[in-house]
Amino acid sequence: MPVERPAPPVPDASIPKAAPGTAAPGAAAQRPAPAASRFGLTVVAGTLRGQRYKLPLTGCVVGRSRGAILLQDDVFVSALHATFLVKEGALFVRDESSASGVYVTIPGTEPIAARTLFSAGARLFRFSGRIEIPISPPGQPVIYGAPVPLGQAIYTVEEILVGGRAGRAVVGATALLTIGQAHCDLSFPQDEGLASRHCELSPTPTGAMLRDLSGGLGTYVRIPPATERPLRSGDRVRIGQHVFQVDLLS
User: When you count CB atoms within 10 A of the terminal residue's CB, does the N or C end of the chain come out lower?
Assistant: First the structure.
């Protein structure tokens, strides 16, 4: 799939001008600055925290070595990681098949499918979906295990560690599973980025409903590669260890 090459963003800072009566070096070859859109990005986490960008009318590319916004010191960022696109007056983000993915905050609640990755605080999780219990064929030994609750689905939520390894996990058939700092099904008391009760999942026939309870800290879902997710003012996008907040400029 061909990758669009939007114009570079306009940093939200003044640009030094040449002294009166003199031409800036390479002035003849300079191109006019791209027209800005009504969207901006503010870095709210990461080494570039506080940096602000005005997006051009066509958006911009973010990466470790390629793009208009470079995150060169972030080891979790791919060479070409994501693209912010402005189309028909709306803003979208697209994951350019990056290794670590692009995560976007959910608007309160969001349905998720099996194998979906989501993030809360500094933790990454995967929702497994419904677990099918194998039935032993007639005449074969029955495998030991707890009885399956009648009319209830068994599902798993597991923590994913650096490198893709599985960490802590919860297997259950309850109607609700909670994640947070304390008194949750998955509790992480040392994670200061988590709220006491950060988010919860409730299983559905086709997956689960993920609900954010963080009070503004945000619960993020990974968007599928090569798909464009619409963004609204106030949404946050996690790329590597950096978090961008979408601003609507006046």
Answer: C
Spatial separation of the C-alpha atoms in residues 84 and 4, rounded to whole Å: 10
**Residue 137: per-residue pLDDT:** 82
Phi, psi angle pair for 29, to nearest 5°: -95, -5
What does residue 28 show for φ and ψ, rounded to 5 degrees? -65, -25
Average pLDDT over residues 8-19: 45
Instruction: Count CB-CB contacts under 10 A for residue 229.
Output: 16
**Signed CA dihedral, 114, 77, 104, 5: sign only:** negative
Q: What is the pLDDT of residues 136-191, one digit of tens each?
A: 788 888 777 777 766 677 889 999 999 888 899 998 888 899 999 999 999 999 89
Tokens in use for 139?
A: 């005449």
Would you state the pLDDT for residue 29?
Answer: 56
Residue-level pLDDT at 136:
76
Spatial CA neighbour of 183 closest among 198, 196, 168: 196
Burial of 105 (0-12, 13-18, 19+ CB in 10 A): buried
List, edge to edge, every strand of the sheet that includes 186-187.
109-112, 207-212, 199-204, 177-180, 186-187
For residues 56 and 8, give the distance between their C-alpha atoms in angstroms, rounded to a whole number.
7
Residue 163 CA to residue 225 CA, distance in Å, equals 19
Distance (Å, whole) CA 11 – CA 187: 40
Alpha carbons 51 and 177: distance in angstroms, whole number = 37
CA angle 52, 53, 57 (to 5 degrees): 160
Share of the chain above pLDDT 70, in %: 84
